[in-house]
Amino acid sequence: MDDTKRYERLLNRYRDGDISRRTFLTALGAAGVVAGVTGGPMGMLARKAHAATPEQVRFDGWGGVVSEAFEKYAFAPYTQKTGIKVVSGTFGGADEYIARVKAGQPGEFNLAHLSGVFDYARYHGLELTSELNEANIPNLQNVIPSLIEPLRKITGGTISAVPYDYGTTGIAYNRKYISDDEAKAKGAKLMVDEAYKGKIGGWGEWKTRIWYGALQSDQDPNNIKDIDAVWDMIRSHRDLALKYWSSGAELMSLLAEEEIYVTEGWSGRIKALQDQGHDIGYLDPAGGLGWQECLFVLRGSPMAACEELLNFMLEPEVAIAVAEGQSYPPALDPQKVELGKVIPTLPAFDPKGTLASLSFFDPAYWNENEADWSKTFSRVQRGY
Amino acid sequence: MAADIAGTRRAPWILLSPSLATVGLLLIIPMLFIVVYSFWLRTATGADQVGFYLDNWIEVLGDRFYRDILFQTFAIAFYTTVICALVGYIPAYFVANTPMKSKAFLLLMLMLPFWISYIIRTMSWINILGTSGALNTVMLSLGIINEPIQMLYNQTTVVLGLVHYLLPFMILNVYVSLDGIDKNLTEAAQSLGCTGFQAFREVTLPLSLPGLAAGSLLCFVLAAGTYITPIVLGGPRDAMFANLVFEAIVTQLNWPLGSALSLVLLALLGALVVIYTRYLGIDQIAKSFK
């Protein structure tokens, strides 16, 4: 029996409920070890079969619990199935990664777990997009259509990435000091409340700061009429804030250590804090910021191998396991796929699968203003 | 005869060629790339527009924002250097006047922090100065304070982090200078009627000034070029010039502007080194690494 059939039989047993997820993953891992150790004639055959495929693909992600989930639930079984090693790297932010890609050679970076449609458009602007053969990714049919369409719109009908999960950047607050009622009543303006001076945080990323500045000045973030009012709100927030955080780990540390009482936060990270027992409330205010994350394939990558990995990662069992690991709902359509018991409890989960209640960055609008606003934010942040 | 002379003339260049090639490949050529980049432009999509444009230089040299941040950077570097000099002189003096056996141990202790990542060392202050950090916990348990004091995320903690990082450089430089002073000189001064303090002020201190200057130069240059410390220990406004370079290159994907900014910092710090070399000589710094 070859590795693929063994994997399929294992997957079927898991689907039928004959084995638990733990056993399923353990068996996959054990099979991987056996295959690696035994080698011999079977190993030679396998190597011969793999000669036409790349030996490895590179995947870059956010690190932390997200990368751990990918590593555990997706890469190890994929390598076991295909013989293609997934070399995973991490980045601290989308900006940092795009700078690395820009400095690299075509094919040096293959897949990345990128944020939102905004970055997808940036990569397209830099001519870094590829064209996926959707026929090789049958599991794409299970993905929420409203997450795929914005990608198609940017790349003229084709796609260079598959949506993988979504979440929100809402308001996280310490319930010991701020009640749910107060948070709900004040919404985004909670973060410019002088009562919490020195105990306010914020993500030091220009897009998020401007989005929340727009909400605080009662404007539509995707159609800002008075940008000066937004800058004023950002200045107010800056003067009240203790710290601009720059990573999920820093966000969690600042809240958990009670250095700050209120900040914006990523829904999955706040869920992780709540699961650790911290009494942190989470609110998506009116016009709150939703985002999707996608698995992006860069130009110059081995497409067939990448498409196979994408299809594998969209396999419901894998996508659900990763989603539970990172606390973000998967991009799978709940109307088509049974998502189990945990996913519906995750923050930002939409049981209808339309995501109509969430607001997203309009990529055309934000990309048009990116050069000017990112530079201005750098100055406003420093007291200008 | 002529061939011998030519061969003699070529020999030093042949011997130097590995070093010259290394410096050329790893320093000069990359630097030239940065110079060329600084004359390009960033397009709306983030791609670079090749050409010869002075826009970045006009912006960097003409915009008050960059001058202010540069001034703030040099101010932070100056405070750091002064504190390092004041705090570092005492342990350097102590090590220099310790019997030979203990000296090796003390020097080893001095090198110990270098074995730990600079970022980790910087982040350790969060566990010390945080609201639930060691200092607040001790003061709360002793009843000195009723609620935690907010000590982190301001310019003072940035300077503190930099002092922590740079102090060993200062101590080593001052130590090398003090160690080279002939002990007979202070003894002679005392035998001629100087008190211990007068002998230090009139003999030891002046003779150790080259080491102090070398340490100060190193501390200042390293402090002025840092960007990690303000990110980890600074508040929203606390930025140094290197943070602007990072933002231009990484966040704004504006490599041409980032190149111009980095060259400005390089030129200013380079000028400082040139002035130092002109009046004090670079040899003093090299001694501390021997």
TrEMBL record, chain A:
InterPro entries: SBP, TAT_signal, TAT_signal_bac_arc. SUPFAM superfamilies: Periplasmic binding protein-like II. Keywords: Signal. PROSITE patterns: TAT. It comes from the Bacteria. The keyword Glycoprotein does not apply. This is Spermidine/putrescine ABC transporter substrate-binding protein. It comes from Thalassospira profundimaris.
UniProtKB/TrEMBL annotation, chain B:
It is a multi-pass membrane protein. GO terms for cellular component: plasma membrane. SUPFAM superfamilies: MetI-like. It is found in: Cell membrane. Keywords: Cell membrane, Membrane, Transmembrane, Transmembrane helix, Transport. GO terms for biological process: transmembrane transport. Residues 70-276 form the ABC transmembrane type-1 domain. The chain crosses the membrane at residues 12-40, 69-92, 104-120, 157-176, 212-233, 263-281. It comes from the Bacteria. PROSITE patterns: ABC_TM1 (PS50928). Belongs to the binding-protein-dependent transport system permease family. CysTW subfamily. This is ABC transporter permease. It comes from Thalassospira profundimaris.
